[in-house]
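Hello again, I could really use a second opinion on something today. For a while now I've been wondering how a particular protein folds. Please have a think about how the structure follows from the sequence. Here's the protein in full, and shout if anything looks odd to you:

***
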Amino acid sequence: MKHFKIYQLLFLLVGLGFACQNEEAKSYISEIEQQRAEKNEAYSDSLTSPLNPIHLTEFNGLDYFPIDPDFRIEGIFKTTPEEKPFVMATSTDRAPIYRKYGNFYFTIKGEKFVLGAFQDMDSIDDTLYNKHLFLPFQDLTSSKESYGGGRYIDILIPQSDSIIVDFNLAYNPYCAYHNRWSCVIPPPENFLEVKILAGEKEFHLAAH
């Protein structure tokens, strides 16, 4: 009887663990869905939208891959203090200055990858943005399921060498919606030889 009660307790604890995980997953998905709804609302407003005005009347929301917790990836971050500032290429003649702050090392489906994380030198003295890093990237969905010019992820400067980067938060540059914008082009080192089936897709109303 004692062993039976122990098994019952273990079964209960396992069940509670699964329940907690399910609640966390639901909360995580709900939070991203809320962010996407707020973005759609902002993009629907002619005063705040980056869209081509001719698309506003047809706009009914951005397109996304399904939210996949497996693309919320934990990896290692290593700083690159010896890197010098450089001009990052853009879709126009704009010449923003960035510095590589570090590299994000991670694994997808058993394969190892690296993404450079960059700091905008124009924001170095801005107390609102000087703790942010920029991860522009392209992958095997680019020019197919996702925007050909690549996608972006923003992160805060990590406080340790272990960080999480969520590709479900990958978003399109404004150039995906209208060619009047000037957008950073991801450097070649940030091309990932894998399909990142997460985040924002190609904007269906834009022709590129």
